[in-house]
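Table S2 (text version). Query chain:
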Amino acid sequence: MKISLLDLTEQYKQLEQEILPAVTEVLASGRYIMGENVRRFEEEAARYLGAEHAVAVANGTDALFLILRALGIGPGDEVITTPFTFFASAETISLCGAKPVFVDLRPDTMNIDEEQVEAAITPRTKAILPVHIFGQPCAMDKLQNIADKHQLILLEDACQAIGSSYLGKMTGTLAKAAAFSFFPTKNLGCCGDGGMITTDDEQLAHRLRLLRLHGSKQKYIHSLVGQNSRLDELQAAILRIKLRHLDKWNQKRRELAARYNQAFADLPLTLPLEFTGTHVYHLYVLRSPHRDEICAYLEDKGIATGHYYPVPLHLQEVYRDLGYREGSLPVAEKACKTAFAIPLYPEMTKQTQDCVIQAVRGFYE
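Corresponding structure-token output:
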């Protein structure tokens, strides 16, 4: 029996009778860019999250980049972020001409260690960009206190965390602005690329809307040098349908994670921590010094695994000139050597999950 990390085909089968008519309607309309579905998706997503504004864009990387651009972050500036995330979190800082400054992780959640952030602040620091890794919210209240104390901008990379919450507020509403990704594997994924920015700042939202559309509000009239970063109508139509199912899917992820936690409680594994807030388990990630042996064993049994992330960002070749070395950020480096994901997705049956549980336990038996 082959078990993948994620089964997107099963999700489509369950939604096919909702998705096909919506897609057909878009195709028949002849309006494929910046139409009614994009507008309504923005309204529905903002309402779901409790944000004043949602700005749909082409992908999560653009969402991060456009936030930084809109806030005027550029050459000579520094942005504090985590080394344990997908490359885009740091890449977009570099694309703006700014410098990413990496801070080590909390060993319990693998999120940025808020206790170490303040020591990384310099006169050039302009913003703090934490990542809600794997769907686990960061300690945003503590980070906001630091940002306020030093007059910095606090942002959110919520690309893996839509539907999660912290201290009663949804991720995406906990900072100046937040970026979301709708890459197909995300908890809310479209059938291609897609992204979104949320903010309560009306002026910032206006600037973001200009930047995503070549700096233009009126066709052929340009007030800024922007770019082409538009969510298309087909993806917006699909996301509108999927958004209605998101809470149900996230609850199923939480139930499956709880079942894993119970099954593995007596094993020498580091389990995901349910921190203050609601974890939505974009990935279910375990840690073990025997990671490679466990993964090889599971793969031999037909069970897919994933290494998130094999090389921390501060040790990537592209950032060699920043001066980080092996041992600079030991918690992140250890996480990259020990962390691995096992299958978890809302459509996963208990029978399938039992196969994974038995295989993991079988490694230790």
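Notes on Table S2: The radius of gyration is 21 Å. Residues 8-103+111-243 form a domain with the Aspartate Aminotransferase; domain 2 fold (CATH 3.40.640.10).
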